[in-house]
Amino acid sequence: MDANLKREIILDNYQEPFHKGLIDDTSYCKVNTSSESCIDNLDFIMKMDGDVIEDIRFDGEACAISTSVSSIFIRKLIGKTTEEAKEILNHYKNMINEKEYNADILGELNAYDEIYKQPNRKNCAMLPEEAIEKLLEELNNGE
Amino acid sequence: MNRDDFPILSQDFVYFDNGATTLKPQCVLDKMNDYYDYHTSNIHRGDYDFAIKTNEEYDRVRSLIGQFINANPEECIYTSGTTMSINMVVFGYMKYHLQKGDEVLLNKAEHASNILPWIRLSEEIGIVIKYVPLNEDYSLSLDAIKTCVTDRTKVISLAHVTNVIGDVRDVEAIGDYCHQNHILFHVDGAQSVPHLPVDFKKCHMDFLSFSGHKMCGPTGVGVLVGRKELLKDMHPLCYGGGMNSFFEEDGSYELKDSPIRFEAGTPPVAEVIGLGKAIEYLMEIGMDKIHEHEIELKKYLLDQIQDIPNVILYNKNSQSGILSFNLDGVFAQDVSIYLNHYHIYVRAGNHCAKMLKDELKIKNTVRVSVYFYNSFEDVDRLVEALKNSKDIFKVVL
Ligand SMILES: Cc1ncc(COP(=O)(O)O)c(C=O)c1O
Predict the structure, then answer these.
(1) Is the CB of B320 under 6 A from ligand 1?
(2) Which of B155, B156, B210, B348 has the most CB atoms lying inside 10 A of its own CB?
(3) Whether residue B235 sits in one domain with residue B291
(4) What is the total count of domains within chain B?
(5) pLDDT (mean) for B42-50
């Protein structure tokens, strides 16, 4: 993916993030995520329909990286089963951590394939992934 | 001013994060190395030459501190920093002298270390915390304080200079008012003692806290200044060697007097000695001169930054070297990452003043905080970078 396209994807999702803003609905499960090394602070909520992710939303104060990652993830994961979602999360994690991964299933998330070059931004890129993983765990254990 | 005194400044960077910690001059580093190289030894317990020298150096710093902020040397306690100092005030003194329902006045511009200990104390003994409302420009006036005082108000605790807004509180007038109304007055001097003249006695302070690392000194050392009569009734938070006169099998013991009573165990000896050097160094430059230079730098920065269209300023008026701002539509951390690209070091975040968001209506800001070694060229570099920030995402993404 060329640098300009990457920047465009990130900026689009930062400036007009998908599903930003929480809703007051008790059928959702909620987690907060923040990190020591950056000032991002995000809330995520998720709702399952059986084993399928019905909805995810997020909100908070966050930088261009973590906001755009959240937006892209949410768009990608709605409608997926837990298993499918976990697979995407795993490949994404591997990409961020410079391990082997399958670029084909990551789509727009490939925009972050060079984020490891900026160690202080790796955290920002990982926050949404961690939050969604936690939500999946909580929702699947709760039932 | 004095840039040549700082070896680190030979590198190409602009350091604007002095509110977090300051750079160290060679003389402070030399002084600490001197202790390690030529007279390493513990304090208070040795009869040999090195120990005697170390003792002298260590004790002398107390007099320097006293001279620096106008207090008696025995009123100056070495701590690990402002945070520790405030915790000692709250859990060593206030816990034993306040009762359920007694009121403590704080405000929402305070640093976490001047709020959380009080919240914890309210859980422990039921004191009531009241937040004095800030003025429109987020400053704090004595009038606003007065409207919050009741006959249950026992303590006013506030930063002399706040770390996001940088407003300089009128501690002389507030101290005078506290004195007349028998209210205990604690001043968080973390952002003032390094930057302007502070007078413990004249301002009727009961307690004053500050950190060495924010005033050219090393990390790991700070000071609690407390009025002698109060220190007599303050309990140590730490018990151990050095601070006791005797202890026996039957459980009887006697503690030494202040300040030693509050310095159990081996203290940060090198750091205390380094702090002493830092104080001498600052006094040589002159605190008035330091303050003046910072105000000039801020004015110079303001004149230019105001004309940059997407800059939102939060504290134009405050009379210190702190400027907090945002670029419209850009997250604060993205701005600091952008500036880092040009080797300009600022801080983004809530700066530990997490309640200030209620007043500012925004959680995070970019903070520029200057010190005497910052130059007008430093400001020019910042302004230039901000002017060209239209393409910020080309740089940060
Ligand atoms: C106003 C204020 N109070 C307290 C502190 C805490 O100082 P330290 O971390 O050195 O204990 C700071 C430091 O950021 C501060 O700015």
Answers:
(1) no
(2) B210
(3) no
(4) 2
(5) 87
Which atom of ligand 1 lies at the shortest distance from residue B159's CA? 1
Residue B57 structural domain: 26-284
Does A7 sit within 8 Å of B331, measured CB to CB? no
Q: Are residues B265 and B295 in the same domain?
A: no
Q: What is the largest CA-CA distance in chain B?
A: 74
**CB B198 within 8 Å of CB B190:** no
Exposure pattern of B288-319 as b/e (b: 16+ CB <10 Å)?
Answer: eebbebbbebbebbeebbeeeeebeebbeebe
**Domain span holding position A7:** 3-141
CA B12 to the chain's CA centroid: 27
Centre of ligand 1 to C-alpha B83, Å, is 6
CA distance A52 to chain B (A): 33
Question: pLDDT by residue (tens digit) across A92-127?
Answer: 999 999 999 999 999 999 999 999 888 888 889 999
Q: Which atom of ligand 1 is nearest to the CA of B214?
A: 10
- Give pLDDT, residue B349: 85
What are the φ/ψ torsions at residue A4 (nearest 5 degrees)? -65, -40
Buried b vs exposed e over A88-110: b needs ≥16 C-beta within 10 Å?
bbbbbbebbeeeebeeeebebbb
Q: B381 and B236, same structural domain?
A: no
Angle at A124 between CA A118 and CA A126, to 5 degrees: 100
Which amino acid, residue B136? E
ipTM of the complex: 0.80
- What is the pLDDT, as a whole number, of residue A121? 87
* Residue whose structure tokens are 């350091």: B15
Which of B267, B284, B301 marks a domain boundary?
Answer: B284
- The per-residue pLDDT for range B225-259, each reduced to its tens digit, is 999 999 999 999 999 999 999 999 999 999 999 99
